[in-house]
Amino acid sequence: MHGGFADASCWSGVIERLQHAGYPTLAPASPLRSLSTDAAYLAGVLASISGPVVLVGHSCGGAVITNAAADIPNVTALVYNAAFVPDQGEQLGVLINKYPGSIIQPAQPTATS
Protein backbone atom coordinates (compact mmCIF):
# COMPACT_ATOMS: atom_id res chain seq x y z
CA MET A 1 0.00 0.00 0.00
CA HIS A 2 1.43 3.32 -1.05
CA GLY A 3 1.64 6.39 1.13
CA GLY A 4 -0.19 9.68 1.04
CA PHE A 5 2.01 11.50 -1.45
CA ALA A 6 2.18 8.73 -4.07
CA ASP A 7 0.03 6.30 -5.99
CA ALA A 8 0.19 2.57 -6.63
CA SER A 9 2.57 3.04 -9.56
CA CYS A 10 5.38 3.67 -7.06
CA TRP A 11 5.44 -0.11 -6.53
CA SER A 12 5.79 -1.00 -10.24
CA GLY A 13 9.50 -1.88 -10.05
CA VAL A 14 8.99 -4.04 -6.98
CA ILE A 15 5.97 -5.75 -8.52
CA GLU A 16 7.91 -6.53 -11.68
CA ARG A 17 10.73 -8.17 -9.70
CA LEU A 18 8.36 -10.17 -7.49
CA GLN A 19 6.28 -11.38 -10.44
CA HIS A 20 9.46 -12.33 -12.31
CA ALA A 21 10.39 -14.43 -9.25
CA GLY A 22 7.00 -16.18 -9.44
CA TYR A 23 5.07 -14.34 -6.72
CA PRO A 24 1.54 -13.22 -7.60
CA THR A 25 1.61 -9.53 -6.75
CA LEU A 26 -0.71 -6.56 -6.92
CA ALA A 27 -0.72 -3.00 -5.64
CA PRO A 28 -4.22 -1.63 -5.22
CA ALA A 29 -4.55 2.13 -5.29
CA SER A 30 -5.54 3.61 -1.97
CA PRO A 31 -8.52 5.98 -2.18
CA LEU A 32 -6.69 8.35 0.25
CA ARG A 33 -9.93 9.35 1.97
CA SER A 34 -9.37 8.45 5.62
CA LEU A 35 -7.63 5.70 7.52
CA SER A 36 -10.88 3.83 8.16
CA THR A 37 -12.10 4.19 4.56
CA ASP A 38 -8.76 3.17 3.07
CA ALA A 39 -8.41 0.19 5.44
CA ALA A 40 -11.95 -0.99 4.65
CA TYR A 41 -11.23 -0.72 0.94
CA LEU A 42 -8.02 -2.75 1.28
CA ALA A 43 -9.78 -5.33 3.47
CA GLY A 44 -12.30 -5.77 0.63
CA VAL A 45 -9.48 -6.39 -1.83
CA LEU A 46 -7.86 -8.85 0.59
CA ALA A 47 -11.12 -10.75 1.04
CA SER A 48 -11.02 -11.60 -2.66
CA ILE A 49 -7.59 -13.26 -2.41
CA SER A 50 -7.21 -16.93 -1.55
CA GLY A 51 -3.97 -18.21 -0.10
CA PRO A 52 -1.40 -16.49 2.07
CA VAL A 53 -0.99 -12.71 1.79
CA VAL A 54 1.99 -10.55 2.73
CA LEU A 55 1.09 -6.86 2.98
CA VAL A 56 3.64 -4.11 2.48
CA GLY A 57 2.96 -0.52 3.42
CA HIS A 58 4.92 2.67 2.85
CA SER A 59 4.47 5.85 4.89
CA CYS A 60 0.82 6.16 5.97
CA GLY A 61 0.18 2.93 4.04
CA GLY A 62 1.60 1.22 7.13
CA ALA A 63 -1.41 2.34 9.13
CA VAL A 64 -3.71 1.16 6.37
CA ILE A 65 -2.24 -2.36 6.27
CA THR A 66 -2.30 -2.62 10.09
CA ASN A 67 -6.01 -1.92 10.18
CA ALA A 68 -6.99 -3.76 6.99
CA ALA A 69 -5.30 -6.99 8.09
CA ALA A 70 -6.98 -7.15 11.49
CA ASP A 71 -9.80 -9.52 10.48
CA ILE A 72 -8.27 -11.20 7.43
CA PRO A 73 -7.04 -14.66 8.48
CA ASN A 74 -4.85 -15.36 5.43
CA VAL A 75 -2.61 -12.31 6.03
CA THR A 76 0.62 -13.95 7.15
CA ALA A 77 2.94 -10.94 7.46
CA LEU A 78 2.99 -7.17 7.54
CA VAL A 79 6.03 -5.35 6.14
CA TYR A 80 6.61 -1.68 6.94
CA ASN A 81 8.77 0.15 4.41
CA ALA A 82 9.63 3.57 5.88
CA ALA A 83 6.12 3.47 7.26
CA PHE A 84 4.03 4.24 10.29
CA VAL A 85 3.61 1.17 12.50
CA PRO A 86 0.57 1.94 14.64
CA ASP A 87 -1.40 -0.33 16.87
CA GLN A 88 -4.75 -1.31 15.39
CA GLY A 89 -7.06 1.72 15.64
CA GLU A 90 -4.28 4.10 16.72
CA GLN A 91 -4.69 7.49 15.06
CA LEU A 92 -1.76 8.77 13.02
CA GLY A 93 -1.95 12.24 14.57
CA VAL A 94 -1.48 10.70 18.01
CA LEU A 95 1.40 8.57 16.76
CA ILE A 96 3.10 11.51 15.04
CA ASN A 97 2.87 13.64 18.18
CA LYS A 98 4.44 10.90 20.35
CA TYR A 99 7.83 11.51 18.78
CA PRO A 100 8.99 15.11 18.47
CA GLY A 101 10.91 16.16 15.38
CA SER A 102 8.62 14.73 12.74
CA ILE A 103 8.45 16.75 9.53
CA ILE A 104 5.06 15.25 8.65
CA GLN A 105 2.90 17.85 10.40
CA PRO A 106 4.73 20.91 8.94
CA ALA A 107 4.53 19.33 5.46
CA GLN A 108 0.73 19.04 5.58
CA PRO A 109 -1.21 21.72 3.73
CA THR A 110 -3.30 23.97 5.92
CA ALA A 111 -6.61 25.61 5.16
CA THR A 112 -6.52 29.32 4.50
CA SER A 113 -9.38 31.72 5.08
Number of helices: 5
The helix/strand order is HHEHEHH
Helix percent band: 25-40%
- Class from helix and strand fractions: alpha+beta
Overall shape: globular
Mean pLDDT over all positions: 86
Could you give the count of β-strands? Answer: 2
Give a structural overview.
The chain has 113 residues and is α+β, with helices and mostly antiparallel strands. It has a single domain, classed as 3-Layer(aba) Sandwich (Rossmann fold), CATH 3.40.50. The chain is built from 5 helices and 2 strands, in the order ααβαβαα. Helix 2 packs across helix 3. The longest helix is centred in the middle third of the chain and has 13 residues. The N and C termini lie far apart (33 Å).
Quick synopsis:
This protein has 113 residues and is an alpha+beta fold.
Properties at a glance:
Rossmann fold; 5 helices; alpha+beta; two-stranded parallel sheet; 113 residues; globular
Topology of this structure?
Layout: H1 12-20, H2 35-47, E1 53-59, H3 61-68, E2 75-83, H4 92-98, H5 104-107
Parallel strand pairs: 1-2
